[in-house]
Amino acid sequence: MKLEVEGQRNLAVGEMAPAFDVKTLDGKRLRLADFRGKFVLIDFWATWCGPCLEQERYLKAAFDAFHNHERFVLVSLSLDDKPEIPREYVAKHDLKWLQGFLGQGSSVTASYGVTSIPAVILVGPDGKVFARGLGGPGIKVAVDEAIRSGS
Question: Which pTM was predicted?
Fold first, then answer.
């Protein structure tokens, strides 16, 4: 699904991932900086985005495979209008990973160069973009290769 994004930039692999400080769906603070030293798989999504919902099974597969790994975390960032919408969806579908809320028109999407969703980006332990444009079974493969690389 295409997004209208102002201040769009083209974030490349190897660049520092922009910092973000947002709220989780349950109102807690969620900052990228809190995960330094880990691979952070960031998923931009919304409940109104069919392709996002189709990709959920691949995110679950990656989460199930790596959630116990000390150097991995999965963070989904919702672009829904209100946090109640993804909160209900996440509870109904038993999604156990971290869920943040951006809403629409967030500067975070612009800083990450996200022009359509789903958008999945892997940030390395050094805070740099390790991979972007991930989708389908390639999500789990990319995380596995990244963790094995020891970066």
Answer: 0.92
